[in-house]
Each structure stands twice: as structure tokens, then as C-alpha cells.
Amino acid sequence: MRKTDKKLERDIVRELTAVCEAAKPTCSGFEWLTHTVDYTRFPESLRVTLVFNETVNEKTMLAEFKALIPKVQFALEPIVDGELPAAQIEARREHRIN
To answer: Quick one: which of 65, 64, 77 has its CA closest to 16?
Structure first.
């Protein structure tokens, strides 16, 4: 990983951590988020995944997801040099095995 890639990664993690910590107490069912990226194709390859618990109903999850998309976009805007397309942000459920 190049030095510039490491800086981008730190910046992405910092911004997404702030979004995550702000969302956890206020968004029903929201658990955590993660991202993947191929720095040779940045920012087109950046994907952010918002993870919700399995107990939240579909309607609530979709409403919370829609509310979080602009927050993720705003946080990453200076890093990706523009708005991250909503298509690069996804939601999924976390299924726990007891």
C-alpha cells in the first residue's frame, strides 16, 4: 500500500467512525458500518456497507438507511472529491448465531 493510500484509508476510517458513532444511539437497528476499496480504482471502487441488526423491521431499516446515506456522503465528500454515489452505499442485516 502506498503512502497516499494509507492516508486515504486513515481519512476514510476517521470519517466513517464519526458517522457510525453518531448513528448508533439515534438510528433504530443500526449496528456498525464497514467499507471496501481498491485504491488503484479510487473512488469508484469505494463501497460502504451499513449493517443493521436482524430484529429491526424492513420499513424501519430502509428509513434509517435512507437517512444515513447523505450523512455518509457528506462525511466522505472531501475525501472522494465530490459526492459518493448512493449506489456505492448499501445496507444489510447482521444475522447472529446463538
So the answer is: 77
